[in-house]
Amino acid sequence: MEKQVELFYLYEFWLPLKGDLIANQVTVDSIFDFSVNAGIRTSVQFVQSIVGTKADGIVGEQTLQKLNSLDFGYFQSAFTVTKITHYISIIKKRPANKKYLYGWIIRALEYHS
């Protein structure tokens, strides 16, 4: 079972993110974590909006090049704010989800340095 779970995350998240090609480990961990939480397309679109590439939700050469050349601290700050903004938008659409906000914010801050 453990191997099946590992393969699931590898094929559903790590490989589509091209995780091995992202230079900073904290950055890739943060993107991976948010992809599992919010979906890979949403996560990658947020990354693309930060790095200034077409937000199509697919990691390509331009996204990787811009992400890997961007200042790590800047990216982490922008990505953290984007994630928190996303969680707030979820609550605006469905107020019953407010009970999850604290946990979501803690999760968003986990990779912020």
From TrEMBL:
Gene3D superfamilies associated with the record: Chitosanase, subunit A, domain 1
InterPro entries: Lysozyme-like_dom_sf, Peptidoglycan-bd_3
Start and end residues of each Peptidoglycan binding domain: 44-108
Name of this protein: Peptidoglycan binding domain-containing protein
